[in-house]
Amino acid sequence: MKRLTILDLQKKKDQKEKLVAVTAYDATFASLVDDAVDVVLVGDSLGMVIQGHENTLSVSLDDMVYHTKAVNRKLTHAHLVVDMPFLTYQVSKEKAVQNAGTLLKAGAQSVKVEGGVEICETVCTLTKLGIPVMGHVGLTPQSVHQLGGFRVQGKESYQKDQLIRDAKHLEEAGAYAVVLESIPQDLAQEITHRLKIPTIGIGAGVYCDGQVLVIYDLLGMDPQFQPKFLKRYANLSETIQAAVQTYAREVREEKFPTEEHSFH
Q1: Would you say 8 and 84 are in contact if contact means Cβ atoms under 8 Å apart?
Q2: Range of 249's domain?
Q3: What is the pLDDT of residues 145-181, one digit of tens each?
Q4: Tally of domains in the chain
């Protein structure tokens, strides 16, 4: 099966076909979601979801390379985009090129960077060198301290104007798509209307060209994580806990393993 490219994703927007993206971090989940989605994102959110940190800032390039390789081994259909972690693209354009190249060598088909006008020169440099870039505006988790936490962005008129400019400048710099995170629905609608490239929303309402959720979140694996934008399509936290409790009880009661599970 042919892997989807950035041209395929653009075609879907042009034909008004919604894009489906999920964030995944390992080979098992990659194989499970591959046929159903258009895009798999290896997100630096792994710092929170996998590593247990409070934010994404501690994630290293080596972390992203490791998880990119794992996910890439099992994808045959979905496009693979990978987050560039904090300080791997902000320091200089030269470092950004080197680090993005490392992720492409690990299996990424494109990279994602956070920010607007301030990173457009870097986006332009990367795309001119043949490295596809997805932008990300609105709530940008790598700026969590500057934003004062994980808060909805773009409620004030000056913020709306800035986010529109950011998205437009990213398009002009060569980005092939833009993630819109945690912004009002009407603002996401306006940005989507103004851009020729696809918008992918998370907490940005129905009018984006596509949607992305973290696989752990949509499967309900963390009962404590309950943001407004999240819809759980399963409740695996209860299923997993019940299964492990049953397993533990059967081991203690010597009901497992049985003859059926033993070699002779």
Answers
A1: no
A2: 236-264
A3: 999 999 999 999 989 999 999 999 999 999 999 999 9
A4: 2
